[in-house]
Amino acid sequence: MRNLVILGGGYGGLRMVQRLLSQNLPEHVQITLIDKNPYHCLKTEYYALVAGTISEQHIRVAFPEDPRLVKKYAVIEKIELATKSIHLENGETIAYDDLVIGLGCEDKYHNVEGAREYTYSVQSIDKVRRAYEQVNNLPAHSTVSIVGAGLSGVEVASELKESRPDLNILLFDRGDRILPMYPEKLSYYVEEWFHTHDIKIIRHSNITKVEPNLLYNHDEPIASDAIIWTAGIQANELVRNLDAEHDKSGRLIITKHHHLPGDEDVYALGDCASLPHAPSAQLAEGQAEQIVSILFKKWNNELLPETMPAIKLKGVLGSLGKKHGFGLLADRPLLGRVPRLLKSGILWMYKYHRG
């Protein structure tokens, strides 16, 4: 029996399991999925969970039930490429024949003193729970500082303000405008929404240190009752520690067939893979589709394709509370209610029409 081990039940890992089980999986192949949670979490909705506008049940998706799928719910302690084995925190060791590493990402703190210890994260469900508890227990008129004005920071700030209009929300941005990776029209629309809702944008910020309830911008202290960090990501620590080639964010360098250059049995997926696009759920799912096709060819002793098609990304959608949003579809900015409705619809389709 050949054991395919998938580390992580995120967007890419779940898509792989769905596609593998829905096709003619060879009888000699078994799938083992390892995740610390007994369900998939909709990470794109973590911002609403922090704000307390949805319940955790709302963002859970069950893993498939199938006799060909073995599920292990445990924390991974070590990935050992030399012996082709995965060591779990509970002492169990799992051997693999093919391995897909899709363990996601974690915050990148840019060597800012105290940032890891004294800020809250939105990168994992357990960290989001802690952020939710802290933020929603704050008394009226407390100050929440959000470091980083990318998509995560913008969505957390807007949802939190709509949920708790009494809070003073500060959004720290290193540049001239928020969401700098998108067209100016889109950025200015979001900035105007923030201005209308009394969210203060602090531009050209440089966070130099963090202490309990204290944020230093250009070494000037700013009192904060809660500090949420959304200022960059890097690959999971287990991935960064692997004896393999990495990019500057700790992601694994891969070939056109998505495996490690020196190991055709190990594939990197999603936030763990060095790809020419910003990490996203779409990208992870598109990559998962290609890895599945490659595995089937490999198992059937067929030649792999000389070239792989480009992964097509449809665009991005973001929320400004429950009624407004923004997006970029086919390089066309969308503003207002339409992108918010589109995002809600896509979420509904993802939860209830998978397969």
Automatic annotation (TrEMBL):
InterPro entries: FAD/NAD-bd_sf (IPR036188), FAD/NAD-binding_dom (IPR023753), NADH-Q_oxidoreductase (IPR051169)
GO BP of this protein: aerobic electron transport chain
N-terminal signal peptide: none
PANTHER family linked to this entry: 64 KDA MITOCHONDRIAL NADH DEHYDROGENASE (EUROFUNG), APOPTOSIS-INDUCING FACTOR 1
Family according to the record: Belongs to the NADH dehydrogenase family.
Organism: Priestia taiwanensis
Protein name: NADH dehydrogenase
Domain of life, source organism: Bacteria
GO molecular function, one term: NAD(P)H dehydrogenase (quinone) activity
Residues of the FAD/NAD(P)-binding domain: 3-282
Cofactor(s), names only, from the UniProt record: FAD
Keywords assigned: FAD, Flavoprotein, Oxidoreductase
